[in-house]
Amino acid sequence: MRVRFAPSPTGFLHIGGLRTALYNYLLAKRHNGKFILRIEDTDQARFVPEAEADILRSLAWAGLDFDEGPGKEAGHGPYYQSQRSEVYREYVQQLLDKGHAYYAFDSSADLEHMRERLKTAENPQPKYDAVTRLHMRNSFSMSKEAVDAALQSGEPHVIRMALPAQTVVRFKDQIRGEVEIGTDQLDDQVLMKSDGLPTYHLANVVDDHLMGITHVVRGEEWLPSTPKHVLLYRFLGWEAPEFAHLPLILSPSGGKLSKRKAEEAGIPVSVKEYIEAGYEPDALINFLALLGWSPGTDQEIFPLSVLSSIFSLDRVGQSGVQFSMDKLRWFNAHYLRMRSPAELAERLRPYAADKNLTPSALEAIARMMQERIHFASEAIEQSSFLFAPPLRYEDKPLKKAWKAHTPELLTAFSDALERETDFTSEHLNDFLHQFAESRQVGLGAVMLPVRLALTGAGGGPSLFEIMAFLGKAETINRISMAFTQMPNQLSTGLVSGI
Ligand code: GLU
To answer: pLDDT tens, 442-489?
Structure first.
């Protein structure tokens, strides 16, 4: 099996493009085949210089390594269509020689005139087809001498594909089954543009053949082009590859996930935005895998390595699938939880760049926040209490925490802490239990005021981990601040010193 991802560098890699790349990658892995990257850069008008780098970066970020492609020559290159012009010329000549293609000299005004002239209610978009072509300026309507003269004098022209009249083209789609479409629905497709470069259709077919592609897996928007491709394979005497067209990605409100609908629903469309927003690559991959493919069970967690051994086209559905940011967030939180604290610490590092933390401090934050976050950045954002004492306490828990005996209890606790030498979270856990027992109070009577004193909040990560992170001096310091600040806030609503 040889499959390819064939993006056009016309902008940042689209989220749907990443899904197409993923499904191709998975098929190659599942069948011990090859995954090829080909850059389809023949459309000069739409070429965006940064797009290729973005495609390469996005694929690498997602872990979709290709076997052949730019920088990985394997005998089928070059993998840039802009470097293959000679190749396309050779095959378009074959098509011309066999009468399957022809020169056309019509100006855009000629074409517009034709469409205006033939437009009717039943035929709102007249085609350049087997009938129309007889009335236009091309090698069907002109004499051989006139065509030669026009070519000699360098008259601008294109090369069109001569579609047979009244013919039904049939092919089998691996996802959709039998597909058929009449040539009366189709235009005599331009194969070679006036700039001498091939159109997508010609270059795509020639390259898929020469690169030995066995399965063409791409988005549904290419389905209407496939009959033309099938005919091109036939005209060139080649066997067509298998085709599979992936279902549309739908917006949460239904309908195709257009740019506008995506924006309305707060859904980023380029992979770049997901990278910048701090999504985990394995979470996005798992999410995209299920956006069209189903395992046939309720299981939802599928890392790339697992997908690579179970993915198959026969479990890809035909109908569109709805994009859900909530689901993606859920996957993101899940994959963060699956990391080891050391791995998560590495993920947090860029967000804590200004904090000068040791690896073990970062790991402690990772452990504390792992269960509580949807994004890596949140671990740092939501742990500001580790870096500065609270300026205020949450009102409700404060009222609950501050009892008549609390100052006396906190004093004793603080004194006992002063004598402690082991400030690890494990030991502090034992220590706090013993302290509460010795004072014959419930655990909460100590833990709630201490938690508030340290963090300002009534809930949060393990108190013992927080104490261990702050260290003895800072823990005692924050408890002593609470002696004046807590009663102050309760009586005046303000905390002293602010
Ligand atoms: N260059 C096309 C694109 O940008 C490729 C379509 C195909 O896979 O045939 O999507």
So the answer is: 999 999 999 999 999 999 999 999 999 999 999 999 999 999 999 999
Find the catalytic residue in 259, 261, 399, 472: 259
Task: Tell me how many domains the chain contains.
Answer: 3
Q: Classify residue 182: in a domain, yes or no.
A: yes
Query: How far is the centre of ligand 1, averaged over its atoms, from the C-alpha of 310 (Å)?
Result: 25
Tokens coding 471: 């260290």
Q: Is 259 considered catalytic here?
A: yes
Say if ligand 1 is within 6 A of residue 8 CB. Answer: yes
Strand, helix or coil for residue 31 = coil
- In Å, the largest CA–CA distance within the chain is 110
Q: What tokens were used for 126?
A: 């007249």
Same domain, 219 and 368: no
* Tens of pLDDT, residues 76-98: 999 999 999 999 999 999 999 99
Model pLDDT, residue 186: 93
Domain residues for 366?
A: 341-382
Is 7 part of a structural domain of the chain? no
Query: Ligand 1: does its nearest atom lie under 6 Å from the Cβ of 7?
Result: yes
Residue with CA nearest ligand 1 atom 10: 7
Residue pLDDT, tens place only, 285-310: 999 999 999 999 999 999 999 999 99
Candidate from 19, 216, 218 with most ligand 1 atoms within 8 A of CB, to mutate: 218
Q: CA dist 390 to 91, 97, 247, 276, 498, Å?
A: 74, 82, 52, 31, 11
